[in-house]
Amino acid sequence: MSKTIIAGPCSVESRQQLQSVVEILCRVPHVKLIRGGVWKPRTRPGGFEGLGEPALRWMKELSESGLRMADGSPVRFCCEVARPEHVELCSQYSIRDIWLGARTTANPFMVEELCAALRGSGMNVMVKNPLNPDVRLWLGAIERLQQCGVTITAAIHRGFSMYDNHGYRNDPLWEVPMEMRRLLPDMPILCDPSHIAGSSTLVLSVARAAMQLAFDGLMLEVHPAPGTALTDAGQQLTPAAMFDVVNSLTDAAGGIVSDQMSAELTMLRDNIDDVDRQLLQLLEKRMQCSRQIAVIKRQAGLAVYQSERWAEVLTDRLRQAEALGLDVAFIKELLEKIHGESVRIQMD
Ligand code: PEP
Ligand code: MN
């Protein structure tokens, strides 16, 4: 399995806390980096904001203590940076791997400042998605850094802050990282199920979903005693719970496709191509009807939007969708899009 795991506490809280978790994590084969929050962005003032320099010092000491990662290399840490001073301090304490957090990616001014600080530093940078589901803003931060010659080693999907997060802390909106994959096919994309889930009980299922969607790895928050954590106590995993997640990756990652499976896949994909062709032709036919209706409405002086007709159409189609065993919420969304386009065409 070639998946990358980054694991470690949300925040570094004490030398003892860091060391105890590092001693476990560094032996796990897939763990390539150990995370530890040094500066913490807090939604409201008054909370624990990270220890800053002492945390970096303990990281450096542990890297030089002779402790090794599973591949035999010295223990390697990463942390979030948000300001040029953070980059400078990381560099002083030999931290070579850093990431931009969601709040930083969302702000091109801050990204520009970090570009200047990172230029020529040789650091490896990962970029979390912005708080809002805007793939172009995420891509823009990556491009800005790359234009300064900064090496981007991964994009990290940590979900989006929405009004309704559908039971998660941050809505996964998987279509956004999937679009990122389409735009940057060679960029590794990791998933941060801890910040998506917001609760340790949901992390495993989010991690499994990420594996089904072919993410290249995970960033996991792991704490020796999550209940006592100073930040994100509800979502951090115990080391034991982390092993369940790591083991589930091994299961999902195997992929052996026999000749027969490959033939069946080709046939089913051909069927899908054909169905899509028919769907598009039908949509074109539907839009033609809309155009003709528009002429009549214009001649008759009728409004384009006829709310009663739309209510009838929707009720009828959703009943049909239910009878066909289709997901009614999905079909509603699809019909709203189609109707929206029909209204737009009639207003042209
Ligand atoms: C974090 O990783 O600890 C963090 C603050 O993440 P995000 O930027 O995703 O909110
Ligand atoms: Mn956190």
As for the CATH topology of the largest domain, it is TIM Barrel
- What summary fits the major beta sheet? 8 strands, parallel, barrel
How many individual domains?
Answer: 2
CATH superfamily of the largest domain, by name, is Aldolase class I
Count of beta strands: 8
Which class best fits the helix and strand makeup?
Answer: alpha/beta
Beta content comes to 5-15%
Q: Give the SSE string.
A: EHEHEHEHHEHEHEHHEHHHH
End-to-end distance: 54 Å
Taking pLDDT < 50 over at least 5 consecutive residues as the criterion, the unreliable ranges are: none
SS field, number of helical segments: 13
Strand order of the largest sheet: 1-2-3-4-5-6-7-8
Describe this structure in words.
This protein is of the alpha/beta class and 348 residues long. It folds into two domains: 4-254, Alpha-Beta Barrel (TIM Barrel), CATH 3.20.20.70; 259-347, Chorismate Mutase Domain, subunit A. The protein contains 13 helices and eight strands. An eight-stranded parallel beta barrel has the order 1-2-3-4-5-6-7-8, surrounded by four helices.
Summed up, what is this model?
The protein is an alpha/beta fold and 348 residues long.
Summarize the SSE layout with pairings.
Blueprint: E1 4-8, H1 15-25, E2 31-35, H2 53-63, E3 77-81, H3 84-92, E4 97-100, H4 102-105, H5 108-118, E5 124-128, H6 135-147, E6 151-157, H7 175-183, E7 189-191, H8 193-197, H9 200-212, E8 217-221, H10 239-253, H11 259-300, H12 307-323, H13 328-347
List keywords for this structure.
single chain; 348 residues; alpha/beta; TIM Barrel; Chorismate Mutase Domain, subunit A; 2 domains; 8-stranded parallel β-barrel; elongated; binds phosphoenolpyruvate; binds manganese (II) ion
